[in-house]
Amino acid sequence: MDKPAICGGKAERHEKIYYGRQYVDAADIAAVVEVLGSDFLTCGSKIGELEKKLARMCGAAHAVSCANGTAALHIACLAAGIGPDDEVITSPLTFAASANCILYCGAKPVFADILPDTWNMDPAAVEAAITEKTKAVICVDFGGQAAELGELSDICRRHGLVLIEDAAHSIGTRFDGQPIGSIADMTTFSFHPVKTVTSGEGGAVLTNSDEYGQKLLLFRGHGITREAGLLEKPSPGAWYYEQLTLGYNYRLTDIQAALLISQLDKLEMFARRRKEIVARYDAAFCELPGIGLQTEIAASDTTRHLYIIRILSGRFSISRREFFDALAAENIICNVHYIPVYYHPYYERLGYKKDLCPVAEQIYEEIITLPLYFGMSDEDVSDVIRAVEKIARYYSA
Questions:
Q1: Helix/strand/coil for 288
Q2: Which of 22, 361, 369, 390 is found 20 to 30 A from 221 (Cα to Cα)?
Q3: What is the DSSP string of 97-133?
Q4: How many CB atoms lie within 10 A of CB 24?
Q5: Whether 260 and 334 share a structural domain
Q6: Are residue 278 and residue 197 in the same domain, yes or no?
Q7: Mean pLDDT across the stretch 155-165?
């Protein structure tokens, strides 16, 4: 049996491959250059063009672009009316922004445990966490797979809660045939470079509610409007505007919008390639002893942002950390998504403690995120598979 490189064996590849990477082509560059030569680098026509395109592709009535995915979550919480003394239920296995946005509004994050197979929030745990203070639920489409949106929507309707879907991972995914962006009360996207499509940095909130759409626009842009129907005082001239609420400078630039418009033209192509890579990984790892995979629910036609394996406890003679390091020695540079939010020192100082969500905590101890992005070659995929198989077989307990 070949030794892993960390044990003095030979690495299968000579160049490092990382867990995620953007893909930018000549059309993307041309779109950005065109804006750089125009009259408007920000607050121009590309913003409206992007928002119309995003809303149309996702089947939503309104799309409001903003500076990043965190800003999208923040203004969604503001539009939902979340404030001091409110509670909002969310997942512990996510990036901190899914909970930080609740704190920005002065409210309390309440963490509901996840399902042991899909790694999305357990609807039963969500319902059990509801109190008279609960105002909303922020579900997370973990890795790109849609959350249990049918059950969560029913729970929120019965309890009068707002459902915000953190879809930072899941643009291109469909749930029961409907595109993500058209289902929850509000859906937030991130367009960070490792996501399926990118604007460099950027985000958006999608909604079918006219009321939320109007509020989102205000919170995105300083709380300021020029719309005649919203002004509270008579307008003295075309220069006039009013600040109606306390908003933020969360605007996207036209430069970023142009890049994202071009990227969205490739979404179907990106999604198809990601699914091809996922299918190869699934076929290779589904029966590899000691390796666990995320289960996909039948309702989710998933465009996966992250591909994650579990290094099942007790099945190898090495730890998850040692498995991670062995992959790095093979030049497969992985990551871990995510440290449970309430493990962070800031949340510990707020009073959160371990053992709050035991399923999420166990899964965190075992997961490794493998490379997955559009630009991976078939050889890259093969190298990742060979490295995982070599390490798994060599260290099998």
A1: coil
A2: 22
A3: HHHHHHHHTT-EEEE--B-TTT-SB-HHHHHHH--TT
A4: 16
A5: no
A6: no
A7: 98
- Smallest Cα–Cα separation from 209: which of 64, 34, 25? 64
Same domain for 39 and 91: yes
Longest dimension (CA), the chain: 82
Same domain assignment for residues 212 and 360: no
Residue type for position 243: Q
Which residues are CB-neighbours of 283 under 8 A, at least 6 positions away?
Answer: none
What's the confidence (pLDDT) of residue 1? 67
Nearest to 221 by CA among 65, 95, 15, 352: 65
Take residue 158 and report the two structure tokens written for it: 């019965």
User: Domain count of the chain?
Assistant: 2
159 shares its domain with 285: no
Count the Cβ atoms, other than its own, within 10 Å of residue 391: 29
Burial class (CB in 10 A: 0-12, 13-18, 19+), 349: exposed
Q: Directed axis angle between helix 69-79 and helix 210-220, to 10°?
A: 130
Q: Do residues 106 and 190 share a domain?
A: yes
Domain range for 227 is: 26-264
Q: Average model confidence (pLDDT) for the chain? A: 97
The pLDDT, as a whole number, for residue 397 is 79
Which percentage of the chain shows pLDDT scores above 70? Answer: 100
Give the H/E segment covering residue 264. Answer: helix 254-264
> Does residue 61 contact residue 208 with C-beta atoms inside 8 Å?
yes
Tell me the average pLDDT across 307-323.
97
d(CA 289, CA 295): 16
Calpha distance 42→378 (Å, rounded): 39
DSSP string, 25-65: -HHHHHHHHHHHTSS-SBSSHHHHHHHHHHHHHHT-SEEEE
Torsion of CA 182, 29, 19, 113, to 10 degrees: -20
